[in-house]
Amino acid sequence: MAVIPINTDAPSEAVLEILFNLKVRDVMSHPVLSMAPEDTMRNIQSRMRDNSITGIPIIKNEELRGIVSMDDIVTALDKGWIDEPAEAHMTKDVIVFEEDMPVSFCITYFNKHGYGRYPVINSENKVTGIVTATDVITALLSAMNQEVARLESKAREMEARISPETGINSEEENKTFEFKTEPFNFGIAGQASTEIKKILKKMGIDAYIIRRIGIASYELEINQVVHSLGGVMRYVISGDTLEIIAEDKGPGIPDLEKAMTEGFSTADERVRSLGFGAGMGLPNTKRVSDRFEIKSSPGKGTVVIAGFDLRKKQDSKDV
Fold this sequence. Notes:
By secondary structure, the protein is α+β, with helices and mostly antiparallel strands. The chain contains eleven helices and ten strands. The strands form three sheets. A five-stranded antiparallel beta sheet has the order 6-7-8-10-9, with helices on one face. A three-stranded mixed beta sheet has the order 3-4-5. Strands 1-2 form a two-stranded antiparallel sheet. A hairpin with a 3-residue loop joins strand 9 (291-297) and strand 10.
């Protein structure tokens, strides 16, 4: 099982900066070694052995048709279909990354699904690379060696401006922060969630509360990216409270009761191929929020408001 030992929920500020700024295209291996659907499983096994790899994407006309892993080869040997074409036995339900996704997506999905590799596609759905856990770890180590010292120095300068009496940075208190989202633009997806967590950390907010806000923010932000025509993530900090106001343009939600049911999703094939669409976004947001409200009109978009008490002590709520 491929696992990358980095906690994307509560990393240091330096690591957080790297995870967002480093994109999938920066860590992927390319050009891609691939095979065709008509190639036999035995030929694919030989290619994997000769190149010391454990998986090969199956591509035709530059489009991804599936992937053959070592598990697929072992199964083919066991079942006696090693000389049959890959098209009949490859894994067809493949989760892919887009080139512009932040590396934080990679870490989340390696740790969530445990797959050994993920194909990478561009905006035209053409396969341009492949990412393994080793690719991610190598790139992160290189980036950290170059950037951690500079970023930690910057973080210390920011902390020096925090009021010693309250832990609140007067520059951030009673302010509104706004970030735009765009459909399937993973180059900026996650920016809002990353920035608000940095702001709250500077304010001295408890890590448990920051984690809850981060979960809600991420779920609402990704919902806008993959389900709407774009929108705005607005964060209103007023005294000891924070409200996330997520307002999007798009199809709206025809049945709010169903949308709030865990596992219910209207995600299409493209959304599911990117690893989203599990139907947990809105239920997760409501679960971690102190106050939750949703309004939606078909064809006019959706507004979700999630409220948080910034000084509320940790309770037994599971996050």
